[in-house]
Amino acid sequence: MLISAARTPADLAAMVDRRADGLPLEHVLGWAEFCGLRIAVDPGVFVPRRRTEFLVRQAAALAGQALARPRAVVVDLCCGSGAVGAALVAALDRVELYAVDIDPAAVRCARRNLAASGGQAYVGDLYEPLPATLRGRVDILVANVPYVPTGEVGLLPPEARVHEPRVALDGGPDGLDVLRRVTAAAPRWLAPGGHLLFETSERQIPQAVDTFARSGLIPRVASSDERNATVVIGAGRRPG
Fold this sequence. Notes:
By secondary structure, the chain is α/β, with parallel strands linked by helices. It has nine helices and nine strands.
């Protein structure tokens, strides 16, 4: 991959040196493959994981059910490079997409990755920068939140703990701080029958499910052995 990306022997030598020094391959190349797409990933931006493709598949299936309307409204919180949103747009023909991340560098990447789709990307803390007109209209709310407990961040591979932003990894003492914040406010943003989806670890399932239920969402869990991925899905209640 480095050979194919290098324009000159000097470029290749420099890229090999950066990789040998521990820089993630995706940062050296400037892109990551995700759901068959080439996603721009600048140095210092969270690299989309292949296991998160399972989250995309779950969200796409639910969004497809919402396409009886002209466009499904999708919000991608903690969007990073915008990989999840870009993959959902590619999988579905009619999507109105909004993405948010607190990291300005990540949002710059997301804007490039979403430019062709017309998706909007905002810098800010979770729901704060979203247009107020989205309240009660969101069909799919997907959030690839940080869920590594603070005490375990130091155990991550150096590619992650040294070269990716801590805000994209550290989920607080038990790894669920951001999940709780997103879930608590989700019912105000979801359309009737809309869905909230999170990726989490297998050992965090009981707490995540309880958090969904306490917020009035109907939880279920989907897992993939192939991707070593766990997704918790919360369905909003329909009126009546």
